[in-house]
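Support request, please re-run this one:
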Amino acid sequence: MTSTVLSESKPDVYSAITAKIVAAIEAGAGTCTMPSHGSIVPPAFPVNAATQKPYRGGNILALWVEAYVRRYISGYWASYRQWKRLGGQVRKGERGAVIVFYKLLDQPDREDTNDDDNSRQRFVARASYVFNSEQVDHWQPPEPTVKSQVQINAEVAAFVKAIGADIRHGSSVARYRHDLDCIEMPNPEDFIGTSTSSPLESYHAVLFHELVHLSGAPHRLNREFGKRFGDRAYAFEEIVGELGAAFLCSAFRIANEPRDDHAAYVSSWLTILNRDTRAIFTAASKAQEACEYLLQLAATKPAR
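Re-run finished. Output below.
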């Protein structure tokens, strides 16, 4: 078992990492970017299939809920017309998900309107219906042109083995399965990284995130998971998972500093908690407990 553990570091290492993530959020965390590229995009980050741009604001939450309720794994969405332009066909009888977009109003020429009024851009909110790619025939998501060559860190591999975690590669999404008590992961070569992380860093950060979720199972730390996708408890658990991932990345020296990826992901879930940054510090305490539990479990469990 590795000796590079957080419990042997300075006592304030957890709070130092948390403080850096909070500072990044307060400075304006960027848009979440998925670090892996399997056959589909995980639903936590809905993307418009026609523009390849992520949805924003309340539309993210709306599509999260739709994906969860309808059990969609794909994160690709588009309007009926957009799918048609892409060569796809929305199947007959499929029901679209409502999103909101803002349309710029044309400004009429009026002699009694002053220059200041004319200079203002005016928008009106309009509802639109979008369909998930799983509702569409004759369309395939883009595949990465180059597969990465991720070599799993030997210390991390030994850590996972010592814990006894059941890791199953080959999934299109990363998730902890409560029913099977296992972690499903995309293949290592599906990780392409982000603008702030290499494929290697991305793979391990995602794995650590799911290991933190695993620690919360009833027969382990018994953390309360959300009853519904997108509820407050679910959001809180996601923040715990991401902070724990940052802590473990530091413990195994996968990354020396918490990256903007962590801040962007935590920030996206804070929306459900009404931007309550105090929740981060409570979540950090739970994340620390999870990391210490996993590290201690790996250190004391007899070799198999």
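The longest strand covers residues 123-132. Strands lie at 47-48, 76-78, 89-90, 97-104, 123-132, 136-137, 167-169, 175-177, 182-185.
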